[in-house]
Amino acid sequence: MKLQPGVGYLRSHQRAKIIAEALRETRSIRVVHYSIQGNHLHVIAEAADAATLSRGMQSLGTRLAKRLNALSGHRGGVFADRYHSRALQTPREVRNAIRYLLANYRHHAYETLPRNWIDPLSSSVDAPLNAPTLWLLRVGWTRAREV
Which residues constitute the domain of residue 111? Predict the structure, then answer.
């Protein structure tokens, strides 16, 4: 989910706190992993079907927009586009997605980060955010080989 220009830097303490709270409160989808970047979010979530995922992401987007607008005194749209989804179907895809998501800030960072650095604005800190119910996110990804 990418932001409109002018909304602010998502990795600020107040915005990151609002985002983490909203991700925890989401009910129709189960957010398992997340990563907050400067101008976008990455989320790995479980949903019963595509329609439930769509409604859950719309609900999350609305909740985030209201809270971020209230914080900044901004009015109007917050997200530049709708979310992009990709169904992960194999243990290897899930393992690679989790690894990519949890290490994504390293890709965007301007500073050099220590090798063992853990992103405090991702589910690395409280992984997983919500306990997964599907086999692929519970156990399956751990059986995939490194790529």
Answer: 13-143
